[in-house]
Amino acid sequence: MAEGPLVLAERRGAVLVLTLNRPDRMNAWNDALEEEYYARLDEAEADASVRAIVLTGAGRGFCGGADLADLEAVGETEFDELPPRPRPRWYPLTVRKPLIAAINGAAAGLGLVEALYCDLRFSTPDAKLTTAFAKRGLIAEYGIAWLLPRLVGTSRALDLLLSSRVVLGREALGIGLVDRVVEEAGRVVDEAVEYAEALAAACSPWAMAQIKGQVHRALETDFATAVADADRLMLASFRGPDVKEGVASYLERRPPAFPGLPPRTELDA
Ligand SMILES: C/C=C/C(=O)SCCNC(=O)CCNC(=O)[C@H](O)C(C)(C)COP(=O)(O)OP(=O)(O)OC[C@H]1O[C@@H](n2cnc3c(N)ncnc32)[C@H](O)[C@@H]1OP(=O)(O)O
């Protein structure tokens, strides 16, 4: 039976809230859901009125990871190579607008990875977070072996990956796996949206896009290269309209009116 939208999209002011929508399966991931999610991200990137995106899950979970019903036969399948994907799995990392996870409940396996592909994570205090891979006989998939040590440190990453133990939102905050815990669980999306709204109201979309690119590139380079990257972008920032508006709005004691995110240029490389 055909399912309805696998990803719901709702505008809240300048923020687009995307909701993974397979609540009877704890929003378990499959290719169709991924395609819808990426399509909604593309639309959000192209729509200048969307200034930030919040990702959450329908029902009581964020995302239980790959749909285990789909994986049932996997041990019997003989792949020569992994099937090609239309886009890299880590596509959300390339989105140029702030992308915030509102972890409303369990995030496991690929569901946790998707939260890590977001720029920051808001969580309920009791959300269950688990890498889950080792318990399923799987390896550290989709770049989590790269992302997780950078967030929590090597031995904590190994703890979480080797044991697959469940970490609650509160502990996750202490180790840097999430960035905010929202005590009133029902408000986790609201608070993520409020944060996103604050970015939208105060910060230049162009500057935020460049900063995201800088941070991701810097994680893979040495210090001198990161400074050279900043120098390359600084000239563009001095020449662009946003610095004029940023300075004028401060001097005139008024909120800024930055233009929407312009299309990609070679500066985004
Ligand atoms: C290529 C592979 C990539 C991967 O992502 S591998 C990792 C796959 N994921 C997992 O192994 C996680 C499996 N799920 C769990 O361990 C637990 O769930 C949680 C820790 C995430 C949450 O625990 P709790 O809060 O106690 O919920 P609950 O009662 O276990 O689950 C509620 C309903 O959600 C369904 N569900 C959860 N995860 C998945 C999934 N990944 N695929 C399909 N269904 C899932 C359950 O079965 C159940 O459903 P019902 O209420 O009908 O019994």
Notes on the structure:
It comes from Amycolatopsis pithecellobii. Keywords: Lyase. This is Enoyl-CoA hydratase. Its EC number is 4.2.1.17. The chain has 269 residues and is an alpha/beta fold. 41% of the residues lie in helices and 15% in strands. It is built from ten helices and ten strands. The protein has helices at 31-46, 68-71, 110-116, 144-152, 154-163, 169-174, 188-202, 205-218, 223-239, 241-251; strands spanning 7-12, 15-20, 52-57, 61-63, 99-103, 106-108, 120-123, 128-130, 167-168, 180-181. The strands form two sheets. It has a six-stranded mixed sheet, with helices on both faces. A four-stranded mixed sheet has the order 4-6-8-9. Strand 1 and strand 2 (15-20) form a beta hairpin. Helix 4 (144-152) crosses helix 5 (154-163) and helix 8 (205-218) runs antiparallel to helix 9 (223-239). The relative contact order is 0.12. The model has no long low-confidence stretch (mean pLDDT 95).
